[in-house]
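Figure 6 in text form: structure in, sequence out.
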């Protein structure tokens, strides 16, 4: 829903013509300064921000050039306030669809304006309602801090989605990349424990791969000595697991008797490879849990 904002003019102004948002700022205009800062920190559309001036009952655009004009000594009388509120109402009703209206003004303008908005079904919010004039700058500073926190949370959420997108294959390589690039920010994502677990699993996986590689090297060394005609290589070619060794028991027993060291080394190699695969599966499972956690 489109939002527009009405901001009260400040009584202390610049003495030369300039854009409205600059004209109404000054070291003694702390409330208006804070309102403008609040608009800017939210990237509020400049074309949807208007200043309300009692002088000539004007609705002034945020970037509109203003010439210096007299400062009123008194608040508008009740009938004049109502007349100004009617003008502001007409300005809002000319918009299609009707916007949500933010009111950053004192009661002199806000009260008759809210009465009219209620009558015509226009949604609005009066900012700083019930806050004394002297405390309004602090109230807006709190709003600015709240907005910055919201933005920080949004940025963190975007980062979480980015991390989630990095987990595609749940592989050790992806896990290593995640730990390297994002472990320092894991606390912000609420997955610090999972990153710690993943780091430990990676250490275990890398060790298991080293053990597997060592076992393979020892197997190749022994086979170079025992399997001179390639008989063992043909037998090992189709064996992917320890269970595969025992599918044909007579053949296994015959080869074990002939190539005992190679069979032993091959069995060790298969076990070491299974340990590495098991470690890889645990990494995959942890990364899946991390994705789920990042989506919350």
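Output sequence:
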């Amino acid at each position: 829903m489109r939002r527009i904002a009405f901001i009260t003019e400040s009584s202390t102004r610049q003495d030369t013509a300039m854009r409205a948002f600059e004209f109404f700022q000054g070291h003694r205009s702390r409330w208006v300064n804070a309102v403008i800062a609040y608009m800017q920190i939210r990237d509020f559309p400049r074309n949807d921000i208007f200043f309300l001036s009692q002088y000539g009952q004007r609705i002034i655009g945020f970037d509109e050039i203003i010439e210096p004009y007299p400062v009123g000594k008194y608040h508008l009388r009740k009938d004049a306030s109502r007349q100004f509120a009617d003008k502001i109402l007409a300005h809002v009703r000319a918009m299609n669809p009707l916007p949500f209206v933010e009111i950053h003004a004192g009661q002199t303008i806000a009260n008759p304006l809210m009465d009219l908005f209620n009558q015509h079904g226009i949604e609005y919010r009066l900012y700083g309602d019930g806050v004394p004039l002297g405390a309004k700058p602090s109230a807006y500073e709190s709003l600015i801090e709240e907005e910055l926190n919201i933005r920080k949370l949004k940025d963190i959420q975007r980062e979480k989605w980015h991390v989630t997108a990095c987990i595609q294959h749940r592989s050790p390589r992806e896990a290593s990349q995640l730990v390297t690039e994002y472990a320092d920010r894991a606390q912000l994502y609420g997955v610090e424990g999972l990153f710690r677990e993943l780091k430990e699993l990676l250490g275990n996986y890398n060790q298991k791969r080293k053990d597997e590689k060592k076992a393979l090297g020892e197997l190749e060394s022994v086979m170079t000595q025992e399997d001179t005609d390639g008989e063992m290589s043909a037998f090992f070619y189709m064996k992917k697991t320890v269970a595969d060794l025992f599918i044909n028991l007579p053949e296994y027993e015959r080869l074990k008797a002939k190539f005992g060291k190679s069979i032993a080394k091959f069995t060790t190699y298969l076990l070491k490879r299974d340990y590495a695969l098991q470690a890889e599966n645990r990494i995959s499972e942890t990364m899946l849990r991390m994705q789920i956690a990042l989506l919350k």
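Caption detail: The chain has a mean pLDDT of 91.
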